[in-house]
Known about the structure:
The chain has six helices and 21 strands. The longest helix has 16 residues, at 276-291. It has three domains: 5-105, Phage tail proteins - horseshoe like beta roll fold; 117-186, Baseplate protein-like domains (Phage tail protein beta-alpha-beta fold, 3-Layer(bab) Sandwich), CATH 3.55.50; 210-299, no CATH class. It is globular, with a radius of gyration of 23 Å. By secondary structure, the chain is an alpha+beta fold. The protein starts with a strand and ends with a strand.
Amino acid sequence: MPNEQLTLKIGGRDVSDEFYCDIIHLEVEMDRDAATVFNLNLPLKHGDGKWSFVDDALLSPWAEVEIHLGFENDMVEVFRGFITHIVPSFDLDLSKGFLAIRGMDVTATMDAQEKLKAWPNRKDSDIAREIFSEYNLEPVVAETETTHEETVSTIVQRETDIRFLKRLARRNGFECYVEAGKGFFRPPEFNRHAGKVLAFHFEEESTLMSFKATVNATRPLTAKMFQLDPLSREERAITAEEVEWQALGKKGALEQFPDPDLRGMRVVRDGVAAKPEQMRTLCQTLVNENAWFVEVEGEI
């Protein structure tokens, strides 16, 4: 049976064999809605008035980090980003001291500066491509239809680049994330090739070390949005209460919670939409996301 392998690069260089031997703990956390992060623990060894790794120039803030896992001929990049936190923990018992190195993918730089910027005469997809390219990410962007003309509805950014893109993605029913040097701005893909089956307590075929599922019955399954048309001054009212995303279990949310009074309803107040179609998409996205009422996390 082939052995699992790990490759770790810091500052563009492979770390030494001695470095690998000193690793106490290395964890990469991947989340559907958040940045990918890593946590690396190293021992603090004391000698000649110095502590190991603390003054190592290799482990400096904003140093680039790459982590690959897999087998000899099948390595997969699981992290590419930067060191963002360095936390030495000292103890009188030298065996308990350690140095924690934490980092985040490129969204760390995309979330560094809040900006006030107008984006006239562009589609949301145009903006996504432009911002991803600024961070040397390959844009994987689905086309959006509406061009926001300056005379009608100029898009204004009042947040960091990644938060801005996530806001635009949400109103289009898209997902927005960074992975393996690419920036994604597109509808969720449900027909992608499935990975290896996740098995727990399945003898030699087990692939999970831990597994936790949470059923949340309080997520609202009806969404409404109200807005005044900027030209006609007429009130727009949109309601979404049907689920468009496919159910991943035996029962969908509407079947699981048949009583309408227990499904919950939310009025969307924090969304920005220039046209009724965008209002409808924003409400529908909220219902679709909430219909996935089971959340799962685990350790591979």
